[in-house]
């Protein structure tokens, strides 16, 4: 397979030839929009052969672009900037989803009320039982993709074509113990390049190229060895909600010197568990995250008024301007006075 994929023009020509020989239509858009999979606010922005663009109808930005690369194999691209929490419908049996997070974080809750998070640069493989009941984006902004395979309804001619290129769907199914697993891992360099090519392909809007890269991803993932006992943990729903609530409380009282340890103790959580969940949700320690939040807010205040730097420091919880300036420099690489002078 890798030898076949060495030459770009040869790749596309081979795909086209095999598609023609197998009689796989380019215009198959059957059930591209399945109302049962989306909320009532979702609306169709554009639809044509093998292509669908949706708006989730959320606060902020919520765009989903879908390509029908093969019958019952769809490629999804998400472009989000929202704090909304989304609820999904029941998915049919026989669904396999392969997802990659390019930017931001994707938090999901499963039917068993366990929660997990797909972090930037990671990919996941989900069987039907581990497709999310609810999902959200802790950092609000998110870009990512998913290859969704309805393996029960894939036509025989598609399976036959995939076999020509060494793609074994039975192997892919076995990776997920049928449908009952969720796997998350860092993306190695080879798989990263495949996903990156998919992002490039959607910008070019080239269907044949997307088909090629989806096949390459399926081939590669079908060959990897999945470690069932990996380091990615499931977290209890209540613990995740407590972690998010503590973060929101501190953000809403950013000028107060609140003790994270005391806030966590009130919930009955172990402090180490809190740190683990916070890192999973937001990608950094609570102290680093809150300092960055304070400095981003400080940058706005420096440019939108004539308040003294010392007053801004006090409002953000710093006892004096010197400590505030040192923190600001650690994030922006310059002192608050220089930042204000340069940008106004």
Automatic annotation (TrEMBL):
Coiled coil: none annotated. Keywords: DNA-binding, Transcription, Transcription regulation. GO terms for molecular function: DNA-binding transcription factor activity; sequence-specific DNA binding. Residues 244-342 form the HTH araC/xylS-type domain. PROSITE patterns: HTH_ARAC_FAMILY_2. This is AraC-type DNA-binding protein.
